[in-house]
Amino acid sequence: MNRTKVLLTAILTLALMAIFIALGFWQLDRARSLKELQKPYQEKPIVALADIASTKSNLSDLAVNRIVTFTGRYVAEFDAPNQIDKNEKSETWLVGLMEVDGGGAILVVRTYREAEMPKGTVTITGRLLPRQFDDRSEKKEGELSRLDPSIVSSL
Fold first, then answer.
1. Among 47, 55, 77, 143, which residue has the least CB neighbours within 10 Å?
2. What is the pLDDT of residues 76-96, one digit of tens each?
3. Do 104 and 31 fall within a single domain?
């Protein structure tokens, strides 16, 4: 009985040692991952919209979140209610449908509601974001329920 007790104690001690060693390696791995995440983000160079996106097709993964530039004119404007900004604040945004020089159209989030749309030809430089898949509000005249080009094409 005494021998069994010593054997069980030794096994328990070895198991605890193995667990703590594994936890130590896990913690080191997490520290390396955190260090990688804290590296400064290098923004890719600004590219022309036509170089990374085309009409009638979804954005590629490489195009999402890139800073693009394009020229065109606004042809319509909409309100986009219940949009959440980077500070987690819900606002109604002013969204313009811009006819791009060279063909096609793109939704441009302008700013908050009070801003006026510019007239004539405008050059835009901004971040290219993917479409929203979930409705943020009810469908109403002059409003977009979500930021999605397929909604605009059906208007």
1. 55
2. 888 888 888 778 888 888 888
3. no
